[in-house]
Specification:
The complex is a heterodimer of chains A (226) and B (76). With 226 residues, chain A is of the alpha/beta class. Chain A is 42% helix and 20% strand. The longest helix of chain A is centred in the last third of the chain and has 15 residues. Classes of the chains: A alpha/beta (226), B alpha+beta (76).
Chain lengths: 226, 76
Amino acid sequence: MKEVTLALVGNPNSGKTTVFNNLTKTHQYVGNWPGVTVEKKEGTCRYNDYHIKVVDLPGVYSLTAYSLDEIIARDFIVEKRPDVVVDIVDASNLERNLYLTVQLLEMGARLVVALNMMDEASERNLRIDVERLSSRLGVPVVPMVASRNRGTEELLKKVVEVGEKKDPVEPFKVDYGREIEDEIAALEKLISQSKVAEGYSPRWLAIKLLEGDEEITKKFAEVEVG
Amino acid sequence: MRIMPLSMARPGEEVLLVGIEAGFGLRRKLADMGLSPGVPLRVIHSQMPGPVIIEVRGSRLALGRGMTQRIMVRGE
């Protein structure tokens, strides 16, 4: 039996909990994130010869560090390094939802995009080119209707495929324009020489520092650069 | 065309967000929730006192009244 850890993330109301329930059925339990009162839901499921541990992260719009929910979601992805991160995306509301997707890609998470609520998208006459979306993002995209338990098998298939990959992820790059890119490059160079960078993408850290992200700035506070 | 704080827009009114008069933290937080300059908003509910409910980029958000006084919008 092979073990895979999967984290579920997504905007509020993207159907994360429904996907969680479809995956884990009755094999779930509720606890707390250490030190905080935010609920932590975990469950398990089996797929072929894989034993999959599923962690439901709080629903967030973004992975900045402004609220506890965001910090929990981000720390879990960055520090616990789940084998696979499944980003539940509301297909009827792609623009809003892809904002979080891009942040996850920038972090270098091993991502599978679950394109949920495909039924609502087609009711609104939205046609989504799933293959093209997948090739533009560089990650698998699985269309789903979680409320009717459609797409769960296909999602599990992609999850184990991605979970098997051991090579480092090439993080997705957003071009922020020359002025910002120059600063990112300069910071990246310094960061990759420091110990703080271990396990993180130096580019991601550089972007967070430029954003003035408190949590990441703290990490660097004790480090001497030079 | 008049520019006013979102708190003054009436229920049912469709407006464009023109700017947020706040520090980096709040501007960033609101941008994360889809409130960036140029985005169209629709006021669903706005009754004193209490929060303002708006529709933006296909979902509904409830904003504290104080916050809506710092969000500048352009009405009809």
